[in-house]
Please model this.
Amino acid sequence: MILEYDLGMQRRALLALKTWKSDPNRKPLVLRGVRQVGKTWLLQEFGRTSYEQVAYVNCQRDPSVVALFSGNLDPNRILRGLEIATGCEILPSTTLVIIDEIQEAPKALTSLKYFAEERPDIHLAVAGSLLGIALRSDMSFPVGKVNFIDLHPLDFDEFLIGVGKPQLADLIKQQDWSLIESFAYELTEQLREYLFVGGMPEPVARHTAGDSLETVRSVQLEILRGYENDFAKYASPKVSRQIAEIWASLPSQLARENKRFILGRIREGARAREFEDAVQWLADAGLVHKVTRFTKPANPVRAYEDSKIFKLFLHDVGLLGALARLEPSVLLQGRGIFEEFKGALTEQYVLQQIVALQDAVPMYWAPERAMAELDFAIEHSGTLVPIEVKAAENLKSKSLRSYLDRFHPTEAWRFSLANYREDQEITNVPLYAIGPFLSSEGQSVHSRD
Model:
């Protein structure tokens, strides 16, 4: 397994970490993200580039660190113990303290409250999978005493930088559409690879190193097996079985024209109530994104949410292909990967970019008694922008037209393989250049209220 992802990456989350460091009201930081998304690498890279020294401990590998948090949670006592464990003198401002796999030491998360109150001068960051942090019932969470940063798989721009194409990433950022059109073929080829490889760091590293697509796929399957093992580890036997059923059904659910998640397709006679906890478990763990339906584009849009109707996507497009057992040979079949199981990979890709760049899960719209559904809608510049995703260059869209005729939004976007153009009502953006349209002003660092 690759433990370090030296891809020349400049991940957006590094900027958020630097903002956290310079904030005079900084609190202990919790870096959240699914397993193997690169949390450890990111914190160590941050420490290497922004501090004089790093005091790193791993609660999964060092029982003495777990024991350290089993007693008195006085921050000064804990700091002395961490100095002994790391052999590093912990100095305010110049030392980054990293506690990794914090889910293995339940009281360690509780201790962050006391660090926030009594030792705010210490730069302390912790990491652990959402499976451990969000779902362990024996943890006392320090409400209002920590900052959060969410780490997502590499978005497409980060992928370009990681595979040694930073000039293409810069070109997209500059939005020079005539020049972008000149490189449309190469950008489309890179996007095809991204749809297969995805944004998880180890598959990207293997791909960048020149390993075969079969090797990349085997790494993705190993990641999926790790998640599946966690179902039983962190959920009750009943819920873990339901989680596994939902998980296995995701590719077939997304292969439908109408991608609304239908419980009856998991098991005949299945009832929504019996699967509610399992769906929520997967969403809380960050393994799926639950895209709920809204009935009216008004502020606040969540007031018009129909939470019982939703679509489920994975957190990474490469892992979706692996879960669906998509053959590597599909990359050689023209542009077929964009239309694979009715454009599911393309929608997954767009959803993944929205989540990474907006740090929020979008919603979608569908009328009560019609097949047409608008793929996504996001809040942008004080309004709700409808988004239609097309897996090919055919720009006809009944669902977007239905939405425009009904609600008359001031702005609408279509993401497709066609070149950039502005129509009277719709802006068409190439799928490989959607980043600037989705980017928020930096990745957010926020406190839980």
Q: What stands out?
A: DSSP finds 18 helices and 14 strands in the chain. The CA atoms of residues 61 and 73 lie 21 Å apart. The chain has two domains: 12-151, 156-438.
